[in-house]
From TrEMBL:
Family recorded in the similarity comment: Belongs to the short-chain dehydrogenases/reductases (SDR) family.
Keyword Oxidoreductase among UniProt keywords: yes
Molecular function GO labels: oxidoreductase activity
SUPFAM superfamilies: NAD(P)-binding Rossmann-fold domains
Entries under CDD domains matching the protein: retinol-DH_like_SDR_c_like (cd05327)
Source organism of the structure: Gigaspora margarita
Protein name according to UniProt: NADP-binding protein
Amino acid sequence: MFNKKRFVFDNIPDLSGKVAIVTGGNNGIGFITVRELVRKNAHVFIASRSKEKGEAAIEIIKNETKKDAVEFLQLDLKSLNSVKSAAETFLAKNLPLHILINNAGIMATAFETTQDGIQDQFGVNHLGHFLFTNLLLPTIKASAPSRIVNISSVAHQNTPPAGIEFDKLNDPNAHTAFIRYGQSKLANILFTIELDKRLSGTNVYCNSVHPGVIKSDLWNGFHSSWGSWIKPFLNVLKLFMITPEEGALTQLYCATSPEIEEKNHCAKYFVPYGELGKTTAQAKDEELAKQLWDYSEKLVKEKLGDDVFSTDG
């Protein structure tokens, strides 16, 4: 399905002195990503909703790597207040931040809204990470050279002709669950493009990733959207999917490989395993990327106040 692995765990350089955050790091490719960063001596924070699951993952990682530099950071991407609190909790530690991997996500779930009244796939996959990244950005820039990795998907191809229909995002009847997912994954790429523009000259390398079609809990969303009849079909599909270990490789490449800096890879879209991928015309639309940024910023300010992005103090 994909090219020969040009990047494997052994290619990850020593990360002593590096600090990383991985959202959704308690399971799936996020867990593998955290484990391998810790194995190579990074200090890693698992940013996820469930403290119980996060701490269980931490114990497994400590046992497997024989290293202790892994911590839990409470983060519920369905709540912008929780996102703000998570960023503030990390910033209060006065640590650098060299690697941010926006890995967490939900896929093709039945229509719901977040605690802030935002359609959940857009809210979790894009808006929560938009806020989290922006609040951490001063520290990421101060820690340069540093990396931001946004996990997108080949599903960014499955969108309306306009790419993102902002006026219909919260309409439960406007799009199928998979089109809602596609728009959120397109948003990940567009966010990367606009963020990179704003990071020009900062030595922060921001890229997006399609990790592959992976056997993981991400597929659970299909059950809520289509019911139990889909399960046998998914079980067959999973025979052709890659493992979480394989799925973690491309984001680990973007987060750690010296090639990213050597080749000045910025605002690129990578596919397994560390290869440059092709995107849709909508995913190259710089005007749409700017529109998404402005829309996201306005929405966050509506929910949390105009001073939410202030870096004072």
